[in-house]
Amino acid sequence: MAGTQKENFFLWGVWGSRVIRHPFLTQKVPSPIKNIVIGDSFIIALLESGKLQSWGEDKHGCLGLGQTKTSQPSPMEIKIGENGERVEDIQYGKKFVLARTDQGHVYAWGDNSHGQLGTGDTAPKYVPTKVDGALRDDSIKEIVCVKTSCFALSNKGVVYAWGGNANSELALEDEGEKVFEPLPMTRLVGHTIHRLEVKCGETVVAFLDPIGPEAGGFGGPRGAGALVPEDSGAEDSGDEKIFEGVDLMRKVTDLCQEWWTHLVEIRHGEPYEFDPKEQTSTGREVQPSGFDLDDNVPFDILTRARYDMDQLIRSASAQVAEIRNIPGTKYVKFILTMFIDACRLRKEKVERTMGARQLVEAKRSISQIQTFQIADADDYQADIKKISGITAHLQRMLDQVRRTGAIDVYCKELQNSIIQTLECKMLCHDTTMECLRAEHSGGEQKASSIKGPLKVIVDRWNSLKSFSLYNLYQACDRSKHNFGTDDELLAWLVQKSDDKIDQLIKIDQDQAISRDALIPSLCYDLLVENAELRKMTNAYQLRVLMMQKGKPPQGHGRQGKQ
Questions:
Q1: pLDDT of 302-346, one tens digit each?
Q2: Helix (H, G, I), strand (E, B), or coil: what is residue 54?
Q3: 161-204 pLDDT, tens per residue?
Q4: Which residues contact 350 (CB under 8 A, 6 or more apart)?
Q5: How confident is the model at residue 550 (pLDDT cuts 50, 70, 90)?
């Protein structure tokens, strides 16, 4: 009966293609409602009990009732979670839904064309599907959506992002147009986020914790005087200072032990163990080695490991700053400094692994070239098409390898070796096509012996131009890199440009591999000379800016010939 129905909420205004000019009372759900999601032609109600009910029509799966349930006239419960999970929040993006439960889990369903469901693919989901990836070992306390972009805030103050990224709106280091699984926002490292909000429908605001960040989210307070002895206001005796120093040493040791335990649990970046006898001598089940983990673990887990290590480094550095001026803390500082160095070494190893894996994956992508599947045939056009297709893919691979960051000598040497290999392979293809054309012409057209090597020089020249400060600035602007001042921005641009220019100069030093015997050495010398001049120009621009700012010119480690 109408008299026993529960009055839920009023609606008015624009709803989809309709305009509700008078408040419309909805009284479909017999239980108290905490919040609702309104789509173009459907509604999802979050009840005070933590359950979800949906009704209406939607072909994208937002009803959450299954693939066959695209229309539901009356409220029907959405099955979500396990072990009695209660939904605490629900958000609606562009044709998809996110829900957060009281156990800190995130579920998603609906359209997934931009990877906004965070499930690692683009297939739509018609029932709530758990978002794992980097969220697997974290507890989420807040979720927000902006069109096809998603953000989640963990209890540790870490922000994760995934989904549509065509304009770098996720603000991640990953510049792909689609991010299929949650990734931590490493540009927020060092700050504990308290709350997320969306303003003006498209702008995400992250509020900092007013109390101050915790120690990387793993224990006691950071940067808030946690270990600093209180000032009693009176002059302390020598014995009291000694006891305070002992107490401070105990607190630092306990805190470092807690941090160290978390660092060991991360495992990535740990020293490799290659002695199988030592691994099995204890009789316990053999665990995957650090080498196996680094070689096979998903890339997003390595990204999260690097983020956690950054947090530990910042936490320990903040404690060093707190006790810097306290007398008698020499050994305390020594312990903290040792811990910071251990974290940095492990972080560098993780970054080295990430860079090496990116290079290796780029090299292995050669097996995905579809033109390799073309059947061999004595057909001139088919042969030319096959070689041209492979060469085009190799060129894209070469550009990708050049853009990949290399943080140490070993990765740079691997990068240079792959570049040289790809250039030699493309040179062979160009020479082969010249021979095929000459053979097909019946002797009327001669094969050129220098066309291929000249193309290599042209390609190096084009790559050199792509490393200009202007092009790097545009890429930086698209990626939404945040720099404190214009000085820092220009210094970063100069360093990045010089690193890439040095790469070309380094490759040219292996002249037996990088140069062709039939091309005059003057062509290669001019290219190298141009690279050196570009480095000098970069250094000059940086020095002029510093002088205009009234600062002494900063020495730049790699300025080319002066």
A1: 888 888 888 888 888 888 887 777 777 788 888 888 999 999 999
A2: strand
A3: 999 998 889 988 777 788 998 988 888 877 788 899 998 888 99
A4: 268, 269, 294, 302, 305, 306, 309
A5: low
Residue-wise pLDDT for 520-533, tens only, equals 888 888 888 888 88
| Dihedral angle of Cα 60, 61, 66, 68, to the nearest 10 degrees | -30
Contact call for residues 293 and 268 (beta carbons, < 8 A)? yes
DSSP 328-364: T-HHHHHHHHHHHHHHHHHHHHHHHHHHHHHHHHHHH
Check whether 152 has a pLDDT greater than 50: yes
Segment 245-269 shows an average pLDDT of: 82
492, 486 Cβ separation under 8 angstroms: no
**Which ranges of 374-485 does DSSP label H, i.e. alpha helix?**
380-403, 409-440, 451-466, 469-478
Q: How far apart are CA 142 and CA 106, in angstroms?
A: 9
- Pseudo-torsion of CA 488, 494, 500, 503, nearest 10°? -110
Tokens of 93: 């993006």
Give the CA-trace dihedral at 178, 180, 184, 186, to 10 degrees.
Answer: -30
| CB contact at 8 A, 282 and 276 | no
d(CA 56, CA 74): 7
